[in-house]
Amino acid sequence: MTLQPSFRDAVERYLDTFDRGVLPIVQAGHPVLRQPAAAYDGQLGDLLPALLDAMRLTMVDAPGVGLAAPQIGIGLQIAVVHDAGAPDAQDPRERTPLEHRVLVNPSYEGVGDERRSFFEGCLSVEGYQAVVTRFRTVRLTGQDETGRQLDEELTGWPARIVQHETDHLRGQLYLDHAEIRSLTSNDNLATLWGGHEGPAEAAQALRFPTA
Fold this sequence. Notes:
By secondary structure, the protein is of the alpha+beta class. The protein has a single domain (7-206), classed as Peptide deformylase (Peptide Deformylase), CATH 3.90.45.10. The protein is built from five helices and eight strands; from the N terminus they run ααβββββββαβαα. The strands form two sheets. It has a five-stranded antiparallel sheet, sandwiched between helices. The N and C termini lie far apart (36 Å).
């Protein structure tokens, strides 16, 4: 994908359009969510910090634990992630805290064969969640916003967040990997399955497999 010379100016005008820096989140069905994002190689120059700040504000306002640039209509391989973690140390999702960070041109690969199945949602698919089976542990590579190389392993919910956001940059939605029979509204998830530690009860009732 080749970006036009005016791309930076267009992004700057776009960021200036919205109050408080909070941007509208693109919803499923928009082509930008289905196109592999362009690798970031400095196209935004000194505008990058402003974009990252707007992405952080938008993610927190949503609220969410991750946001990829295509979700605000910008087809670049940039994402922000952050999760305070679960208050219960015994959370079966292994939802440990993930400090706010920026992922530039990220990629991941599974470490080992262990996988976990849990309900997962997306800011670009409002109102619904579905069970997705993902690697429990991944190796994350890429850069941060300063160009520093990333090469580390993440386990549990932080690994799931990284997989979800990196998939966005590949033109994928979590629904592409979900057990479609598990698809549920947020209201039904809270009412019917919110008190359970995992998707086993939902799997039995809705008749879908889990890892």
